[in-house]
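The authors assume throughout that readers already know how a fold can be written as discrete tokens. A single example would do more here than another paragraph of explanation. An entry of this sort, consisting of the sequence and the corresponding backbone structure tokens, reads as follows:
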Amino acid sequence: MRPASVLALAGAAAVSLSLLSACGGDDEAGAAGAIPVTATDDTCEVAKTDLTAGKTTFKVSNKGSKVNEFEVLKADGKILAERENIGPGTSVDFVVNLPAGQFKLLCSAGQTGKGPSQNVTVTGEAAGGDDARLAKAAADYKAFVVVRLDDTIAKTREFVGAVKANDVAKAKELYAPSRVGWETIEPVAEKFGDIDPKVDAREADLKPEEKKDWSGWHLLEKALWEDGSVKGKGKVGDRLIADLETLKSRLPGLTLDPVNDMAGGAKELLDEVATGKVTGEEEAFSHTDLVDFKANVDGAKKIHELLKPVVQERDAQLAKDLDDNFAKVEELLEKHEKGDGYVSYDKVGKGDRKELADAVNALGEPLSKLAGVVAE
């Protein structure tokens, strides 16, 4: 779940700022032929609105005061592709594989999923796209998504069973494992925009008038760790399972694109780490952030591994850089292992958090190049 404010957590501002700078890119010249997009807190200016199908690079510059995200929306409002965490005063090259059709380009200051937009028309037929290895990678990734969602539902059923029994100790034990599958495939889940806020909204993300409709994991997290009781929360658990089952029912018709959904999704997963897990903002009550952190990294690494045969051929150095940086992040996470899980994140000191943040920064740089190489 994207945070409403990545700088909201007290004591984490320095880490958040460094990560936003890394995720947001810089003001150097963009890729040749990139379409300039200028985002402010209340405008979204796209230099060109008649586009050609295929690989398209948008150079998104955030001239506003808030962290921005850039979304490519289909005619039905669903997200085709998105780039989050574009920091104020920074710019990014965002590679998208565009099919023919009508789309809306949206800039969202504050990353609320709302904001000014511009309509664009895409015509023609994308060149290439006939690499059987990419088609296989997409099929294998979809199978992976199904398996991970099934695992989430099974573990969430166990968690909800403990909630209904008001077995606080057992529910606390089962809470983090129930979220692992979800965190591994979160960018795919977020493509169904109505499901994500129902199951994964944090209290800090909600406006006062929205709290009456709050549901999902984090409501139960707060009840367990802050209230010490989940008595009467059975209906919340049942709704959580029902919403996850709804997501599962929609997967058969989902087509995953190697550029938009896989390469772009890997970057989104790392951004989730940067803006929620490293800061400690994701699991504000349970402090099980490192479990989510590992799941996000594992999801991104799975995508890298599926795309690696193509990337190795097209850019061997990028493939090596990704291998090396994934290994470094995993090595640092191992330092904080405890039993079958990880230490409580509130016990991780400032120095260790910075070390993790630096490793995420280092991985983010080559990962941001993945979509461009896959789209060649």
